[in-house]
Structures are given as structure tokens and as C-alpha cells.
Amino acid sequence: MRSTTRRFTLIVNPAAGNGRADRVAAEAQRLLAGTDGGCALVRTTHLAQAGQLAREAAEEGRLAVAVGGDGLVGRVAGALAFTDGLMGVLPCGRGNDIAGFLGVSVRLTEACRVLTAGVERRIDLAEVNGQRFASIASGGIDSAVNAIADRTRFLDGRAVYTYAAFRALAVWRQAEFRLDAGGETITYTGFSFGVANGTTYGGGMRLAPDARVDDALLDVVSISHMSKLRALRAFPRMYRGTHLREPAVTVRRVAEVSVEADRDFMVYADGEPVTRLPAVFKALPQALRILVPAQATRA
Hints:
The chain has helices at 20-32, 47-59, 70-80, 97-102, 108-117, 141-151, 157-170, 228-234, and strands at 8-12, 39-43, 63-68, 86-91, 119-128, 131-133, 136-140, 175-181, 184-196, 218-224, 249-254, 256-261, 266-269, 272-276, 279-292. The chain is an alpha+beta fold.
């Protein structure tokens, strides 16, 4: 591994990837041990602790590296927002969407190379009811999908979210949503809302394929009523981003949006339950310093 003066603190969620994160962290520590700055490894017991560990690493002048899935990455990112702390990612969760749209490989040697030879980039984050996130926050049928995925242990990656989506759709009852965005009030009956800083969630579903993490704006995706059969046919197209051609799908680009619904929905952000409706979402421009591959395209 290339020599560097960076000092690393690997923050690992041992449960991520059904336990794979712990093994990845140990191997990463071995790969990075020969760097000039050295490499420490700390294990979390909960996401709030991960944020504290990230802040402590930054205060010591160390690079905080999130070793896990999107929930851990988002929590470390939120903790380092608007600080001098620099962050890296070693993706080994179920979805790894944040790493994906930043161009960080799930291959460990390539991801470690970003830590030693990558370039710094300033990216936006977002927040919902004060809780920061990096990729996408959503609710409605998405709330049920995430809850089912969290309980499912026999599948991983894209498969678990596909399975959860079909199970949730089978019992779904349409909801009424109200959005206040950019001075406009929108009401609709349908499936869901998504507020996107990044492009993907759910193991590669391109909910907001045109979202940018450097434009100081959020892409608000509304999916209104369609038949369940049509929704089934449209679902696979989310992995290509072509679901935006559906008349029931609309996108608005704003800096802030508030969302209400006719019943109680949990809002999931970066794959984790963070708050309930009603909720206010805000863009946080240029909030985070993060390492990305030198050749990464802008997301």
C-alpha cells in the first residue's frame, strides 16, 4: 500500500454486512499498517457512538474511516459536517449506495487506495428534522420496505430490497401526502416521497438519477397513484433511473421541503429510521470533506 502521512481511525460497525464489516476492518488495518501515519481500529455498539468516535478522530488530526453500510457512513458524515475533519469510506454493508455514487469501490484494495491516494472533495449533505444524512430520505411505502428489509436476514444487497418491495406492495394502502416546496404546495395520493441529496438508495435503485451532491439542492421525488400491476412493472426500472418516465413520478429541485401525510410514517435516511412525519428537509451545502478516487466523476 502506498506510503502516506495520513493517520487513520477505522470506525467499524461489527454487525454490518451480516458481520462482514469486522473482517473487512481487520484486513484493512493490515493493509494500512505500513503507512507512515499508522492505523487504529475502533468498534461501535450503536450509530450515535460512531459519530462521537468520528469527532474524536478529527480532533486528533486523524482521518475518520467509516467501515460498514450507508447507516454508518451517513452518521459519520453528519458528525463531521462543518468541521475540519476529513472522512473516508470502506463500504461493506448491504446497499453501499453512498460509496457507489462517490465512485468508491467495494473491492477492499481499491477502496484502501482511495484512503492513501484519493483526492479531497467537498460535498453537500442534508438534514431531516435536524438529523443529517448523505444520500436519500424517504417515506410512505418506502417506510414499510425498509422495515421489512431490516428484519430480513437470509438475503443481502439488491435482493433484500427487491424482496421487501414486493412484500410491502402486496398489502399497501394508498396515502395522502402534502409537500411544501419552494413556495409551492403539492398534494397527491400515492405511494411515497423521496428527498435526495445523492442519486441512489436500496442497493442501487436510482431514485433521483440527476441529483448532485454539489449543487446545494435536493431532488424531491413524488410517486403518486398507479395500479399495483403498473408499479410492479415500473419497479425494475428504478435501477436504471427510467422510472422517471412514468406519469405518476415527478421531481422538483429545491433547497428545503416540508412533508406531511394522512397517517404516521417513519422517515428512513441512509437506510436507518431517523424521525417521523411531519418533517422538514434542508440541504446543507458544502458540508463535508471526503476522499474520493482521483478519477471519480461528479455525482
